[in-house]
């Protein structure tokens, strides 16, 4: 069956859909020896698809793994230079390339999904699709109702603008408060930065769901292959998604907000006492004397 070539490239682990489109734009992709253009289709069972002269190899089957990332484990495929911490790939025994859905910082833990389905990974990771992720977060102190409202409406982050609306609910409060947070975006260390900005630093952070897919009985460091039903749950947004979309529509963009802002009232001159139009502009009071030019004296020759 024919499909768009950029989709086939993403499935073959050549990167995101946008990265694959760039490969086609650069003239590096050929089908049956001919350079193709974005939108062209091909059947991988019949056509010869090549990238930089190398024939495209699609995975034998698509695999999907749920993984409960422990703390101090890196979400990357390879460790950073001079970094001895383990990576998520060391826990999942799969020989081929895997895309990561839902990366977490090293201090955070919880649900991640690893798959060789590049198309799905792009749909669930790219910011424009706004797929939901749910977290259980413990913060220091008890946030007030005003603080929760600010958090949900969006907070300005330095150099990254305002965060998107989210759902924040208090599960248990006291000296330490447990929150349930549902988000559709994931700026770098966003929850930790917002919580600190609002005066309630994070003590612990666990992602519990991606879409409707939950951790289940997975312990930190454990993984399992997803069933077809779990893959559908992964694709489906959390129940709060409708409320988040409505909140996003209510919040005006900066341009619209500026246009909708009330304008300063125009200052008008008061009416004349006799009712005939506006009062004339005020002028400087006259002294009654005219200015005269003093003649210059001629210098003696």
Task: Annotate the secondary structure layout.
Layout lengths: L2 E2 H7 L5 H9 L3 E3 L2 E2 L5 E2 L6 E3 L2 E2 L8 E6 L29 E3 L7 E7 L2 H8 L7 E8 L4 H9 L2 E2 L3 E2 L4 E6 L3 E8 L6 H8 L4 E9 L2 E2 L8 E3 L2 H8 L5 H10 L3 H7 L41
Parallel strand pairs: 9-15
Antiparallel strand pairs: 1-4, 2-3, 2-5, 5-6, 7-9, 7-17, 8-9, 10-14, 10-15, 11-12, 13-14, 15-16
Helix pairs in contact: 1-2
CATH architecture of the largest domain: 2-Layer Sandwich
Question: In angstroms, what is the radius of gyration?
Answer: 32 Å
* Corresponding CATH superfamily of the largest domain: Pseudouridine synthase
> How many strands?
17
Shape designation: globular
Strand percentage = 15-25%
Mean pLDDT over the full residue set: 84
User: CATH class of the largest domain, please?
Assistant: Alpha Beta
Derived from helix and strand composition plus strand pairing, the structural class reads alpha+beta
Tally of helical runs: 8
Low-confidence stretches: 253-267
N- and C-termini, Cα separation? 110 Å
3D architecture notes:
The protein has 301 residues and is of the alpha+beta class. The chain has 2 domains: 3-55, RNA-binding S4 domain (Structural Genomics Hypothetical 15.5 Kd Protein In mrcA-pckA Intergenic Region, Chain A, Roll); 64-250, 2-Layer Sandwich (Pseudouridine synthase), CATH 3.30.2350.10. The chain is 22% helix and 23% strand. The termini are far apart. Residues 253-267 have low confidence and may be disordered.
